[in-house]
Amino acid sequence: MRQAEQQNSESRAVLSGAAGLEYGNLENVFEFVDEISGGYKPSGGGRPGPDPGIDIGRIIDAIDPNIRPAIDAIRREITTQAGILALIASEGYGKTWLAADIPIAWNNEFLGGTWTTHVGWSGVSKAYGVSVPIDFDVDRAIAELERWIEEANGDLSGEVALSDQVSVRVDPASGNTIVLLDNDSSLITKAARLTDVGFGYSRPAWSSPNGRLYVGIEARLYLMELSRLSARLGDITDSEELFKSIRDADFRSATDAGLDIGLLWVGETYQLGAQLTNVNQPTFDFPSVDLAPYRDTALISFLERDQRYVMDRQLKLEASLFGRNRKWAAHLGFDADPATDAMGDRFQWATASVALDFESSWLSNLRFGYRQNLAGTELGYVNAGATAFRHLNIDVASALDTVRIDGQNLPQGLMVSLGVQFNW
């Protein structure tokens, strides 16, 4: 509903660009995935590559006559791997985005209101892990080891399946015991490119001595391009190359339209607003991924659901308070319900900010704020910005949480935007 503030004012346009990144608290995630992926069997029943499996030493010596210590050693290693998978799923992600935006508010009183146009472009990509629980039946494993020992007649060799997801092999070179996992845990990469064209109209609907009520509507045309890749850990030889390959992957193009509506009450020193975005919930589909390598029904179901992206309907509330002559302003914003973006991340933002106006020609505005995601990552950001020379906008935001990268504590998320404003 910002267009309502342009009523009876000059026309205005802003050319802006922004960039940001966010990543989980897992240092060198790609190297980490590459390191553990050797312990997982490739799909299709293929043999592991060079240096496969998880080496847990010469536990073969402990197998006969008492196999319990061997089983305990294998179980401890599986528990460790399960923890690693959970860590990758929760913290092993990286997300980057770029955006450009040109909103224009026209000083045109056709039909008694203000008209706006908007053209925007954005691109986002993300890589993240999805874990599948490791199933290990101790009683079955004991029975399979006993059978293996009996059939080997003292000369253990080859490979034995202890359960559907766990097998043991004796390395012929070292004689050590190698544990191999047959598990569908995967690394997924996604990307989206969106061109957004909007046309809006707002006008006063009712007025009184205490203020004026504006109503507005904006129609949007979305031109979306989506791409998605999924690979089991056992099929990964270079996870960083897998992430880079998203740039060369096929993008599926789709077009849909959206509708936003809103109300804004403007008093002398305050304003209150409500906006309902994506009223009709535009829907797009990612390309399908090859499900043939997968056996886990829960993961298959997730990959099938994840193919569809719906722009969730969301109610946004706002309140602003202004000082005399609007030399200062305080603003609160709140998403009444969570929504999901194209990368599958949940967001529900609560924001608070203050802005100070100056008469200086080189520094006309300073602003400071805080925003908290109440869903998904639940990250909080502090931000600061300034308007220089009355036309140049610069804003920077940094997450309060930190991650450790190459031995240094760095913000878990960063955002920066630049904009140039034109009035006529």
Describe it.
The protein is mostly beta strands and 424 residues long. The chain folds into 2 domains: 2-27 and 97-132 and 183-423, monomeric porin ompg (Porin, Beta Barrel); 43-79 and 134-181, no CATH class. The chain is 15% helix and 49% strand. The chain has 5 helices and 24 strands. The strands form 5 sheets. It has a 14-stranded antiparallel beta barrel with strand order 1-3-4-8-9-10-11-14-15-18-19-20-21-24. Strands 2-7-6-5 form a 4-stranded antiparallel sheet, covered by helices on one side. A two-stranded antiparallel sheet has the order 12-13. It is elongated, with a radius of gyration of 28 Å. The two termini are 21 Å apart. Residues 1-8 have low confidence and may be disordered.
Short structural description:
With 424 residues, the chain is mostly beta strands.
* CA-atom Rg in angstroms: 28 Å
Which structural class best describes the helix and strand composition?
A: mainly beta
**Helix amount, in percent?**
10-25%
**Mean pLDDT over all positions:** 84
List keywords for this structure.
disordered N terminus; elongated; 2 domains; 24 strands; 4-stranded antiparallel sheet; Porin; 5 helices; mainly beta; 424 residues
